[in-house]
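Why should sequence recovery work at all? Because a backbone constrains its sequence more than one might expect. Tight turns favour small or flexible residues, buried strands favour hydrophobic ones, and helices have their own preferences. The token representation captures these environments compactly. In the example below, the structure is given first.
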């Protein structure tokens, strides 16, 4: 089994593997924006719409990161924004779906699909942490964007629509979302620091 992990770990940086992930993330991002079509159409004022599609924005940014790796480039601010938001909203979506189930929401096949895809978002952000060229500046910019997005989501009420069972707990969800942002920022920074320092 060890050789399989070594092969997989080394494949992360290979062109063919990056292309596969690029296509998967691109298709997922397109579907994600389609998923938000009704909420985007109903959001006013219109300038807030850029902050509405949280998950597809995270996966879209990560898709761009994969493309920069394919062409042999590195953009630290993009890497910080993508890795933090992609990880955060991957975990967030899974947690919200499970919380909805625990409160009596019915299980649909779309929920399973969303859990699998969003788990993949979080995992890929962590797996590629050794490739990010991060410093305080890009991480700080990404942190400001992420926390500002939380503020707009739960003060301007443009957060992703929640299962009906969770609506009475929107304030709690908002608090947990901010905490998840802080965890995501810290985790990506930690993983990048440890993995690059040890040249894993």
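From this structural description, the recovered sequence reads:
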């Amino acid at each position: 089994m060890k050789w399989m992990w070594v092969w997989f770990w080394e494949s992360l940086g290979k062109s063919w593997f990056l292309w596969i992930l690029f296509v998967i993330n691109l298709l997922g991002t397109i579907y994600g924006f389609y998923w938000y079509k009704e909420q985007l159409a109903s959001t006013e004022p219109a300038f807030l719409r850029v902050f509405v599609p949280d998950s597809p924005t995270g996966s879209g940014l990560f898709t761009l990161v994969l493309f920069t790796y394919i062409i042999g480039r590195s953009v630290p601010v993009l890497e910080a924004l993508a890795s933090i938001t992609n990880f955060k909203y991957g975990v967030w979506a899974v947690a919200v779906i499970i919380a909805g189930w625990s409160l009596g929401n019915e299980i649909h096949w779309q929920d399973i699909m969303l859990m699998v895809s969003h788990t993949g978002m979080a995992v890929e952000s962590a797996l590629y942490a050794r490739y990010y060229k991060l410093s305080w500046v890009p991480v700080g910019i990404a942190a400001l964007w992420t926390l500002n997005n939380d503020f707009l989501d739960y003060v301007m009420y443009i957060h992703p629509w929640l299962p009906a069972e969770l609506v009475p707990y929107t304030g709690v969800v908002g608090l947990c979302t901010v905490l998840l942002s802080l965890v995501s920022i810290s985790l990506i920074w930690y993983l990048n620091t440890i993995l690059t320092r040890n040249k894993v």
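A few observations help interpret the result. The chain has a mean pLDDT of 95.
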